[in-house]
Sequence to fold (137 residues):
Amino acid sequence: MRMKPTALLLALVVATGTALAAGPVLAADVGVSVSVGQPGFYGRIDIGSFPQPQVIYPQPVVIQRVPVAVAPQPIYLRVPPGHAKNWRKHCHKYDACSKPVYFVRDDWYNNVYVPRYREDQEREHHAKGHGQGNRDD
Fold:
């Protein structure tokens, strides 16, 4: 009895417990990590002692109001182009539908936040004693 190629592949997958996939499918399994302070980062930004950020809209955006005794503090987010305009569609990705959100401008993030964030990280790194005495001068 001759098996069809699809049935043969299915039997192989079941027998080995391993799925065979084409290149593009494997590429989807590769994760890329981008963190705060990098140009491709999108998400919540801790303003802390940073200068007042430049924002896209003057008032915070709230999609889903939640009854609370005290109004929640607004959060600052950097989002890809189009997410702020269609915030109702994208707010769940940032767990921010019920929070007042200010969208920071890309030029402020890249020209003010990122350089200062990197300086602060480097200063903190050196304050903890890292990088001391291991230079290859």
Residues 3-32 have pLDDT under 50 and may be disordered. Residues 106-127 form the longest helix (22 residues).
